[in-house]
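Obj.: predict assembly geometry.
Materials: sequence records (below).
Method: joint structure prediction, all chains together.
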Amino acid sequence: MGAIGTVRAGRAIMATLLAGAMVTLAACGGDDDGKKDEKATKAAPQTPGSTPAADTKPLKGTVTVFAAASLTETFTALGKQFEAAHPGVTVKFNYGGSSALAASINQGAPADVFASADEKNMKLVTDGKSADGTPTAFAKNTLQIAVAPGNPKNVKSLADLKQDGLKVAQCAPQVPCGAAAKTALDAGGVKFTPSTLEQDVKAALTKLTLGEVDAALVYRTDVKAAGAKVVGVDFPESAQAVNTYPIVPLAKAPNADAAKAFVAFVLAEPGRTALTAAGFQAP
Amino acid sequence: MIGSPRVRRRVRAERPRRGGAPLALLVPGLIGLVFLVLPLIGLLIRAPWSDLGSQLGSTEVREALKLSLFTATAATGIVLVLGVPLAWLLARTDFPGRRLVRALVTLPLVLPPVVGGVALLLVLGRRGIVGEWLDDTFGYTLPFTTTGVIVAEAFVAMPFLVISVEGALRAADPRYEEAAATLGASRWTAFRRVTLPLIAPGVAAGAVLAWARALGEFGATITFAGNFPGKTQTMPLAVYLALETDPEAAIVLSLVLLAVSVLILAGLRERWMTTS
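Observations (raw structure tokens):
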């Protein structure tokens, strides 16, 4: 090959690298699907300057809510009610692991409201001076073992997850549901190796509904929201790992008025009923 | 046989230099350069240099790096074994629907990797079309295994190699193969002894691209293979998850990935791009 190989390879590499670079750019755009906040960032509101006349100004524009994945169903329904109550407002949601949401808020993601699935990740936001005021607890949640309908592997307790060959999906330890799972497992003295540590609770549940795992440690509200697709198994250790959900309007909220109104909406009556119906406990 | 391309190459290499670059190209070109290089500089500036050693020594980083290097290399191996013949079929044979097949082969290039991961689950997952059979027959499942990571990486990386090799094949002069055939070589011998050495640079370039793509794979891996340290948590997954709790660790992990990429490119340059 010698000199020819050398030169030709150089050119081939450069040419392919150039072509590849363009394609990779497109492919990387796809990667972002994993990081859900990207979309929300793009969809973020260009706040139409709310009318300065301070009286009874109607809310308008978009309010962007970053909420824990376990709130998906409840908040989506509440968002529709909020839009109905405030015709000028569009509610946009970005659901994900609370830790990922907290990180992107502290990095300056233009969000109006943050609802976390635990106090630890909310603290990241308050410590990062990203919250407007003190967060308010609005719900409590506990874990269940989700299994396929009919419970084919006969999982009755936390210790049953140790069964040989049983595949279990758990949340990553930095995500609230993962932290809660760890607390519950420690409390019960149960040790096993899960198949995967997912980045949020819905991802863990999806692995179960797809049939890739036999059990998933998720919130009871997720089991309820999944309907007939999964069954929940209670276990006593879950009482040791109760998550409190706080909500707060954000300091750099592009739409501060709507942010406060949405938080009030969740804390007050429409929110209470919806949260209770979804299986959340009162804080 | 080899003399004539060398002469051609020399002639082409000695093009006359032209005057300075026009502003219309220079300005956007420089902006493009800054755009590409600035994020890398940002990574270097924000790196926690003082405790770099302890971060690098952590088992998490070492496990992820080892896993990434292993899976990317294994995926490149698969891609070479399957991709080169596929490229040959596309470049050297004619069959109905060849253009459609070619389009399908390049699809993973533009497909969001997460979608690729979902598709892999539906086929190779425990309830997938092929996966269910694998599970029933051999009691073997791919998701959540290191093999699953390799499969996901090979899936997204293969098109890079196929495109590169197919291009090299089309550019290679078929008369060499024809000459080999007239001298009595079978098509397989001609491929092995004449075509393959001829397109070796294209294969190498494609393999490097495929390896790099596999190393950076995120979406298909986390969707199909899940995330567990030491087993399926590759560097990009570790970076993503570390960013949420320990941004400094994420920066260190990113630096390691960056260093690996630079080393590979530099190594290739030494080997293939230095010309006298």
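Conclusions so far: Chain A has a mean pLDDT of 80.
To do: check interface contacts against the pulldown list.
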